[in-house]
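Final report, section 2: Outcomes. Of the targets proposed, Lysine exporter LysO family protein is the one most frequently requested by collaborating groups, and we therefore present its record in full.
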Amino acid sequence: MLQIMLMMVCGIIIGRTLRHRKLRWLSPLTTVLIWILLFLLGLEVGGDQTILHSISRLGKDALLLAAGGAVGSAVAANRLWHYAGKSKGGQE
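The predicted structure is given below as tokens.
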């Protein structure tokens, strides 16, 4: 985790230093690197029998977490909407 944080901090420092330069190559390079990382992750998952056997359970858990997050966000946004309307003197 420390390595990840150090890389992020280094990237932020370098990005801040180069912020006035046009880095047109950076966005396409980032896209290509993400595709390569996804491909390598797929190779890793495909080669691990433990992950392959438990992928249906992992998918169900991920779906449950995503649905719970979406519903929770919608409920929180609805409550905030009503609270903001009341605090401004508006009607529901």
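Residues 19 and 47 are 41 Å apart (CA to CA).
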